[in-house]
Design a protein that fits this description.
The chain has eight helices and nine strands. The protein is α/β, with parallel strands linked by helices and about 210 residues long. Helix 5 runs antiparallel to helix 6. About 30% of the residues are buried.
Amino acid sequence: MSRHGLLVIISGFSGAGKGTIVNNLMKTGKYRLSISATTRSPREGEQDGREYFFISRKDFQQGIMENRFLEWAEFSGNFYGTPREYVMEQIKEGCDVILEIEPQGALQVKRKFPEAGLIFLTAPSMSILKERLTGRGTETEEQVARRLSQARREIEKMHEYDYIVVNEDVAECTDKVEQIIEVMHERSCQKQDLISRFREEAKLMNL
Ligand code: 5GP
């Protein structure tokens, strides 16, 4: 029996290791990745169309007006959004699509698509999160402080997720997320075809 495609949201604190885990998941070849649009400037080594579609604020606003984003959010002074069309097409084709997005967007998706699976990734503690954000050297001290105060606010949203995974060891965390995605396929909301089949069969059996 063919499986329905899932919308899998990998979210959590900036610095929790979402990017690394998502890269590992993509290496399995089992998933499709949604590439977001952002108004932030590319970091060294980032390529337009690979990490993000880097667009102007004007184009982003236009995208919002034309309802081209499945969700969008302002994060740390920049806009980020998920292009709707690609995601919907992949799901229709039966593929599992991964969205790596911050919590405001994740919860927007949950409201629009209750069947989406939400995973919150976190570092083992706030102090380790701070160390990771400082250690990666991609943000200034001020930006790190901003992302940490954002994380403080995000703590209050953690309970709204389906799963919370602590990223202590990258390989272990990747395995756990993969297992969670497998289990998501077994949820009753993914089993409408099976339920219908039973209903039909019962009817044929005059039950
Ligand atoms: P960064 O600037 O570090 O690449 O991303 C900042 C935050 O924005 C991260 O938490 C990342 O997951 C999130 N993000 C990336 N793309 C999207 C998106 O399309 N929508 C939302 N809501 N957040 C996103």
